[in-house]
């Protein structure tokens, strides 16, 4: 076994700051959606993906890839949303195992109501504090993280599991 490459004090502080910032963003976005629109961030993500799809419908397996979720998580989320009337599930014609997920009129209405507050929350939380140069630096850094060999290998393993 190789010795771990321990984080320096400065790296540890930055790592914890990243974790805190991500938790704050997630918590704030979730609270805004739940308190104001009775939607979770997961429900919102599904509704956005469906609203942007061609006929406002998508195969479940394609949703997994689009959302970067595993099949179990996606399937359970869709089942809960189907029970709430936000989406509907139908069997895929010509593929007995395939499932098509469609946004319902209620899901569409709830998404339309939630979008303005969600966008304002994102703007005030993420973009308003940015100074000149921050966006490009952050974009460059996040692109490097997402394209790193470790991230690519983990994503490839996930795709193979689907």
From TrEMBL:
<dbReference type="GO" id="GO:0003700">
    <property type="term" value="F:DNA-binding transcription factor activity"/>
</dbReference>
<keyword id="KW-0238">DNA-binding</keyword>
<dbReference type="InterPro" id="IPR036388">
    <property type="entry name" value="WH-like_DNA-bd_sf"/>
</dbReference>
<dbReference type="InterPro" id="IPR039422">
    <property type="entry name" value="MarR/SlyA-like"/>
</dbReference>
<protein>
    <submittedName>
        <fullName>MarR family transcriptional regulator</fullName>
    </submittedName>
</protein>
<keyword id="KW-0805">Transcription regulation</keyword>
<dbReference type="InterPro" id="IPR036390">
    <property type="entry name" value="WH_DNA-bd_sf"/>
</dbReference>
<keyword id="KW-0804">Transcription</keyword>
<dbReference type="InterPro" id="IPR000835">
    <property type="entry name" value="HTH_MarR-typ"/>
</dbReference>
<feature type="domain" description="HTH marR-type">
    <location>
        <begin position="11"/>
        <end position="147"/>
    </location>
</feature>
<dbReference type="InterPro" id="IPR055166">
    <property type="entry name" value="Transc_reg_Sar_Rot_HTH"/>
</dbReference>
<dbReference type="GO" id="GO:0003677">
    <property type="term" value="F:DNA binding"/>
</dbReference>
<dbReference type="GO" id="GO:0006950">
    <property type="term" value="P:response to stress"/>
</dbReference>
<dbReference type="Pfam" id="PF22381">
    <property type="entry name" value="Staph_reg_Sar_Rot"/>
</dbReference>
């Amino acid at each position: 076994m190789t010795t771990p490459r321990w984080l320096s004090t400065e790296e540890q502080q930055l790592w914890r700051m990243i974790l805190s910032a991500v938790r704050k963003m997630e918590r704030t976005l979730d609270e805004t959606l739940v308190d104001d629109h009775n939607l979770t961030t997961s429900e919102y993500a599904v509704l956005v993906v469906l609203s942007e799809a061609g006929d406002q419908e998508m195969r479940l397996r394609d949703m997994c890839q689009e959302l970067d979720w595993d099949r179990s998580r996606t399937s359970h989320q869709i089942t809960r949303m189907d029970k709430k009337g936000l989406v509907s599930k139908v069997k895929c014609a010509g593929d007995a195992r395939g499932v098509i997920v469609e946004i319902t009129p209620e899901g569409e209405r709830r998404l339309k109501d939630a979008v303005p507050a969600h966008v304002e929350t994102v703007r005030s939380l993420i973009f308003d504090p940015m100074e000149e140069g921050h966006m490009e630096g952050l974009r460059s850094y996040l692109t490097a993280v997402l394209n790193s060999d470790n991230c690519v290998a983990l994503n490839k393993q996930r795709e193979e599991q689907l």
